[in-house]
Write a structure and sequence with these properties.
The protein is α/β, with parallel strands linked by helices and 220 residues long. The chain has a single domain (22-215), classed as Collagenase (Catalytic Domain) (3-Layer(aba) Sandwich). The protein has helices at residues 2-12, 39-42, 58-75, 106-113, 168-179, 212-215; strands at residues 26-27, 45-52, 80-86, 104-105, 122-128, 132-136, 139-144, 146-148, 154-158. The chain binds zinc ion (ZN) (2 copies).
């Protein structure tokens, strides 16, 4: 039975290829403060841990966290964010690279980040300016924007392939949808939906929303 469950879990894993799918920890303004004893009564909740890598700017990480908070407030009103915390920068070590030492393997970063999840509701979001890759579309080492596994509350996102950096937060929200809510790619293939698989196109439309099909699974 356990083996069967494991197979199902692996089948649920999703690679999100390119939508082809200061170093002091700083706590930023909380969206809502809820004591942990009360969490069960307030429904879906999460604590977001932002992990910047190498020289990813602390201010940029703060901007991303604020943009994500705004988006969650707007598009996931039923979700309570108890805390958002930007962690001290960490290095991406050589052991996290692909065999050719040209990119970092997103799955290795996720494996490392998994240890940061300390309590139910924790979500870890790694941020890097370096190129990251995974095995997808028949390629062993395919450059991607971000990677998360469904319902693992653990994702890593790279700015490297994002043409319009002001739209980077949309990739973060997309991966949050995979990782925290377990949302698959948009079943309607709606190009204006946050959960669409852009199949290698790094251009993100200026306006986005969750389409009706994807919105059904979002806490309201
Ligand atoms: Zn995706
Ligand atoms: Zn959709």
């Amino acid at each position: 039975m356990h083996k069967y469950l494991t197979i199902i879990l692996f089948a649920l894993m999703v690679g999100c290829a390119t939508w082809s799918c200061s170093n002091n920890a700083k706590r930023i303004k909380n969206v809502k403060i809820v004591s942990h004893e009360k969490l069960d009564s307030v429904g879906p909740h999460c604590r977001i841990l932002i992990q910047p890598y190498d020289d990813f700017s602390h201010n940029k990480a703060l901007d991303v966290s604020k943009q994500l908070e705004r988006a969650l407030n707007e598009h996931m009103k039923g979700l309570t964010v108890t805390e958002v915390q930007v962690m001290p920068n960490r290095p991406l070590t050589e052991g996290l690279m692909n065999n050719a030492k040209t990119r970092y393997r997103a799955s290795k970063i996720l494996d490392q980040q998994q240890g940061m999840i300390k309590q139910p509701g924790d979500v870890v979001i790694g941020l890097t300016d370096k190129d990251i890759s995974t095995s997808v579309h028949g390629y062993e080492d395919w450059g991607i924007l971000g990677l998360s596994y469904l319902n693992k509350s653990n994702c890593v996102i790279s700015t490297f392939r994002v043409k319009d950096k002001s739209q980077f937060w949309k990739v973060v929200l997309h991966e949050f949808g995979h990782g925290y809510l377990g949302l698959p790619h948009c079943p309607n293939n709606d190009s204006s939906c946050f959960m669409v698989d852009a199949n290698g196109k790094p251009n993100l439309p200026p306006e986005r929303h969750f389409c009706d099909s994807c919105a059904r699974y979002i806490p309201k």
